Amino acid sequence: MFRSILVNNGERITVHDEWLVIHQKDDDKKIPLGDIQSLVVDNMSISLSVYALCKLAEYDVNVILCDSKHLPCCNVLSSDSYYAGFAALKRQIALPKEMQDNLWEKIVKAKINNQAYVLEKLTGKSEISGRLHQLADEVLPGDPGNREAIAAKMFFRNLFGVNFTRFEDDVLNAAMNYGYAIIRSLVARSLCAHGYNCNLGIHHIGEGNPFNLADDFMEPFRPIVDYWVFAHNDELVDELTSNNKISLVGLCNTEVLINKKRMRLYNAVDKCISSFTSAINGNSVDLLLLPDMEKYGK
User: CA nearest 196: which of 267, 252, 270, 101?
Assistant: First the structure.
């Protein structure tokens, strides 16, 4: 199992003899580069050498930098990890609108069904989860009826209470935003590794958003974070603690089910993006979308 590292204290991060070295006041911590899957730097006073960044990219480590509010704001991605990047980009640009709509339909259905499984597992509200499954069945290509938004409103209010509102400045939303950013970085890393340009989304088309495609493919994975937030609700009081953040970063190593096989989340994301490549090469919508939340946690 690879390690997910959160660094929130120290002075410098360097690399020496293929080891990541975290220089602290009293001592240094050393971690083999080959053992690291994700590195989150959550302290703006820490210096990170260019050589260290290059070595981390060489080892395909997912590097995430946090801002002054301690939220992930930057994802450092390798630019040369795929041997046929131009061919992948051409296929991505040429993707027909009809196929984009069909892919988005499948993504939204997977997301809503996963929300339904999470809601029933955590609250026992079978009637509401049944309605969510029904909404998933009603999704059409491109989701013109906006079933995704309807399902999200129903899901969050039944999971966290009728007074809960997304994007409020509270600790529950902070936990979700932090966890979503970690998942988004995993998806972006995998997309870049397969030669895709994250600016070019299937459904998300924000001109100022450099991660439109990652935002598309992370949607079915969001319930993993929602599950964590509900399960840790009692310990989320005023603000996210270091332990909370370490646990959220550790979701990269959580086990999920894909195609009836258990694997770590970072491997599951790669399987999903690989299936996207197979889909556009074969002009199909046969995607492996994670996770199978019906069996999550078993």
Answer: 270
Spatial distance between the Cα atoms of 291 and 296, rounded to a whole number of angstroms: 8
What Å distances lie between residue 194 and 84, 89, 188, 275, CA to CA? Answer: 8, 10, 10, 11
**Contact residues for 189 (Cβ-Cβ < 8 A; gap 6+):** 60, 62, 75, 77
pLDDT in tens, 245-276: 999 999 988 888 877 788 888 888 988 888 88
- Rounded Cα distance between 100 and 105, Å, is 9
The residue behind tokens 């209010």 is 157
Q: Measured at the alpha carbon of residue 105, what is the angle toward residues 104 and 111, in degrees to the nearest 5?
A: 85
- Distance separating alpha carbons of residues 77 and 296, to the nearest angstrom: 29
* Alpha carbon distance 214, 191 (integer Å): 7
Residues whose CB falls within 8 Å of the CB of residue 110, separated by 6 or more in sequence, listed in order: 219, 220, 287, 289
Maximum pairwise Cα distance, the chain: 59
pTM for the structure as a whole: 0.85
Q: Which two tokens stand for residue 161?
A: 């209470």
Q: Give the bridge partners for 36, in sequence order.
A: 3
Q: Measuring CA to CA, which residue among 295, 293, 246 is closest to residue 118? A: 293
CA distance readout (Å), 208 to 81, 188, 204, 212? 25, 16, 11, 9
Is residue 280 within 8 Å of 95, Cβ to Cβ? Answer: yes
Give whichever of 86-95, 150-159, 229-238, 280-289 has the largest mean pLDDT: 150-159
Are the beta carbons of 54 and 60 closer than 8 angstroms?
no
